[in-house]
Design a protein that fits this description.
The chain is mainly alpha-helical and 215 residues long. The chain folds into two domains: 8-104; 108-172, RNA-binding S4 domain (Structural Genomics Hypothetical 15.5 Kd Protein In mrcA-pckA Intergenic Region, Chain A, Roll), CATH 3.10.290. The protein has helices at 20-32, 38-63, 67-82, 92-96, 100-104, 108-114, 121-129, 149-152, 174-205, and strands at residues 133-135, 138-139, 156-157. The chain has a three-stranded antiparallel β-sheet, with no helix packed on it. A hairpin with a 2-residue loop joins β1 (133-135) and β2.
Length: 215
Amino acid sequence: MGDPKFSRKSYDTPSHPWQGERIKAEVVVVRQYGLKNKTELWKAQTILRNFRKQSRELQARLRGGEAQAKVESDALLAKCARIGVLPSDGTLNDILQLNEESILNRRLQTLVFEKGLSSTIGQARQMIVHGHIFINGHRVTVPGYIVTRLEESSVEYDPASPFTDEMHPMRMSAEQAAASMALKAEQAAKEEAAAAAAAKADAEEAGITAEDGEI
């Protein structure tokens, strides 16, 4: 365990620090999710990397007929479903298809913004740090806190916070909240269409046609 005053890092840094394309992509994600710095992004990537590593190892052990691997795979899938990155019927292969956005979307900061409790992603971070957000009746001041599915519905303002007043000048209006949700839905539809197009292109390159999938 070691001395608590000298805790280990909870993330891995890039193996090649000076890669232009990666740096530009990281800057975009940091701004999109209102992250304080790239360290928060690297933490999400490390969580994802660990999930993928466990999935690959468990699939290999399952093919070898190891009984303990089934127990560990069920526990891993249950954990991924609990934090909301996979549906309840997800598989180990589904874990390999996750990306860093899957983890970032479960951060408290992101959910506060998506639920319309803040007008911007930056304001969401400020509200959390300043103690205006409750989860299950308790104040949470960590923007990077991973919210579980059970906790998601309980994300709300601190009852004593001035933000509970609907006339507060910093509150998001109903029209702004609706516009934000519509924009997110449009972006999700575009991403789904892009993923479908990429899958179709891969299938065509592999020589797989639509007739091959018919029964």
